[in-house]
Design brief:
Blueprint lengths: L22 E7 L2 H11 L6 H12 L3 H10 L4 H10 L3 E6 L9 H21 L4 E3 L1 E2 L5 H13 L6 E3 L14 H9 L4 E3 L10 H5 L8 H15 L2 H4 L5 E3 L1 H4 L5 H14 L12 H8 E4 L6 H11 L4 E2 L10 H8 L5 H15 L4
Parallel strand pairs: 1-2, 2-3, 4-5, 5-6, 6-7, 7-8, 8-9
Helix pairs in contact: 1-2, 2-3, 5-6, 6-7
């Protein structure tokens, strides 16, 4: 069954009533104040080219798509809930849109992460049956990020952490960031590794052909980040840590066999100082330490393959609102040929367990 993505927010028809709740697990928001900070960065002397390509476009384009996205990102109330109702979405798990605070200077990032988390927590309190929230942190200051994770869990009631992939070209595989992993594991909260545009030293070939964003660059960059975390030994150091990656795992499940084979071959050859033996195969960490969402990939064969490869308890539904708000995709996924139990896991119960939704 092939389902084509739609860029239109117009409904084909209303999704039918079903025997499960539809929980969308990768849905974005952007405080108005953050967009003001973004405008200052864009007006600076040398803004990051990926940031210019991504937010620079959405914040300046007169296109219907860009205006729709910027408007919807800022709403945490009536309009968002109306769109959810039109699409048959019972609950959104909401996170600060990419690149979040990670494009900001260190001091601003730490401060604004708290502001964004307070705003999201207030929306969750107002709409406790419709919204669940993720904690934004500033990896620029790992110690403060760890503190914000604890505050987000214990004081704000947020139930996951959002990291918008690289932070100004730096990756969480560097041990200097591992306070973040330690805090997430200690607070039993998963980290959602969400895409960002490729960093300055990687993006040019993507920009040349318009492939830097969601069409391809996001998946390449975020798949690289997740694999760097695995091969750095993060899960040997933090075995209970759980992470989430979207867009059908940024293709990593489909590479599992080759990742296992070539990682072992590279370790045996002593080719790279950075590639050392791990306690398990890369695919074992994917099965045991990662959850996968289908955000942006409403395609039954890919969903079923990932369920079969990683386990039906490891794959969750996401819409990717407002960037991909296609009601026909909901209807198509409702019609997937799978057992009622597996479908309920996919749409509802896996998310309830991972995000501690009661």
């Amino acid at each position: 069954m092939a389902i084509q993505a739609s860029v239109s927010a117009s409904p084909v028809k209303t999704p039918a009533k079903v025997e499960y709740a539809r929980i969308a697990t990768e849905e974005a928001f952007a405080p108005a104040e953050m967009l003001k900070i973004y405008r200052k960065i864009l007006d600076g002397s040398d803004p990051d080219p990926g940031f210019v390509s991504l937010l620079g476009f959405y914040m300046s384009s007169p296109s219907e798509r860009a205006r729709h996205i910027i408007t919807c990102l800022q709403d945490l109330g009536e309009m968002r809930i109306r769109h959810m109702d039109e699409a048959g979405i019972d609950r959104q798990v909401i996170a600060l849109t990419s690149p979040g605070v990670q494009v900001m200077d260190k001091e601003t990032a730490v401060s604004f992460a708290r502001v964004a988390n307070d705003e999201l927590a207030e929306a969750v309190r107002k709409h406790p049956t419709r919204f669940t929230g993720m904690i934004a942190v500033a990896p620029q200051n790992p110690a403060e990020a760890a503190k914000e994770i604890e505050r987000g869990v214990k004081q704000l009631g947020l139930t996951a952490v959002i990291i918008n992939s690289h932070t100004q070209g730096e990756y969480l595989s560097d041990p200097k960031f591992w306070d973040i992993f330690e805090a997430a594991e200690a607070n039993d909260t998963p980290i959602y590794l969400h895409p960002n545009t490729p960093p300055r030293n990687m993006i040019q070939p993507f920009l040349e052909c318009g492939l830097d964003g969601a069409i391809y660059g996001f998946g390449v960059e975020t798949g690289l980040h997740a694999l760097r975390i695995i091969t750095a030994g993060v899960f040997d150091r933090f075995p209970k840590l759980q992470m989430i990656i979207g867009h059908m795992g940024e293709a990593l499940p489909f590479w599992s066999y080759r990742l296992d084979y070539m990682h072992q071959a590279t370790v045996r050859s002593n080719r790279y100082e950075t590639v050392k033996a791990l306690k398990k195969k890369p695919s074992d960490y994917l099965r045991e330490n990662f959850y996968i969402t289908n955000s942006g990939v409403a395609w039954e064969p890919a969903i079923k393959f990932t369920q079969e490869t990683l386990g039906a308890d490891r794959v969750m539904y996401a819409m990717d609102y407002p960037y991909q708000h296609a009601i026909d995709e909901v209807i198509g996924l409702d019609g997937m040929a799978m057992t009622p139990e597996a479908k309920k896991q996919f749409f509802q119960t896996n998310a309830e367990r991972v995000f501690k939704i009661k």
